[in-house]
Amino acid sequence: MFDTMTMVKSFGWLCGAFLAFLLIKWVAEETYHIGGSGHGDHHEQAYSIDTGADDSGAAVEEEVIDIAALMAEADVSKGEKGFSKCKACHKLEAGENGTGPSLFGVVGRPVDAIDGFNYSGALEEVASEWTVENLFHFLENPKKFAPGTAMAFAGLRKPGDRADLIAYLSTFSQ
């Protein structure tokens, strides 16, 4: 059934199809890379949308937050309501741990200070004590403040909410 002539014709069709694909590729490249000699050419963008932002590559300045002023205006009752997000993992009773350590007396307490709780060790690398400032930044984004922490909480984005929560936690002292 298969003779030499059939195989030569099949090979010829295969080579012809390959050449046709190369020709189509060459025409498409020339069409879409007008005036260019190849893949390495860099051209200015033909159209750009002005977003109003400065694209000079300057670093974005972070907003400076006056933590002391926020703490002076903090509302303990709002902090108590905000603590509802923490209740799933933390307890406020002295010596009682949940998934997370007890938060009784946390403000001013050394980091990793609860005996019998298995800490991840990431907090010790960034802070030695739970000051108001450390708590404020930790509560914004725990994973960013202490990379490698086991705490899965996403954080509180609003500075006022963080200040209210810290004020509430400050009422539980040792």
What's the gist of this structure?
The protein is mainly α and 174 residues long.
SSE string:
HHHHHH
CATH superfamily assignment of the domain at 67-170? Cytochrome c-like domain
Tally of helical runs: 6
Helical/strand content category:
mainly alpha
Largest sheet descriptor: none
Radius of gyration: 32 Å
Rounded mean pLDDT is: 83
CATH class placement of the domain at 67-170: Mainly Alpha
Oligomer: single chain
CATH topology of the domain at 67-170: Cytochrome Bc1 Complex, Chain D, domain 2
Q: Helix amount, in percent?
A: 25-40%
CATH-derived architecture of the domain at 67-170: Orthogonal Bundle
Protein architecture, described:
The chain is mainly α and about 170 residues long. It has a domain at about 65-170: Cytochrome Bc1 Complex, Chain D, domain 2, CATH 1.10.760. It has six helices and no strands. Helix 3 (about 75-80) crosses helix 6 (about 160-170) and helix 4 crosses helix 6. The longest helix is centred in the first third of the chain and has 29 residues, at about 5-30. It starts with a helix and ends with a helix. About 15% of the residues are buried. The model has no long low-confidence stretch (mean pLDDT about 85).
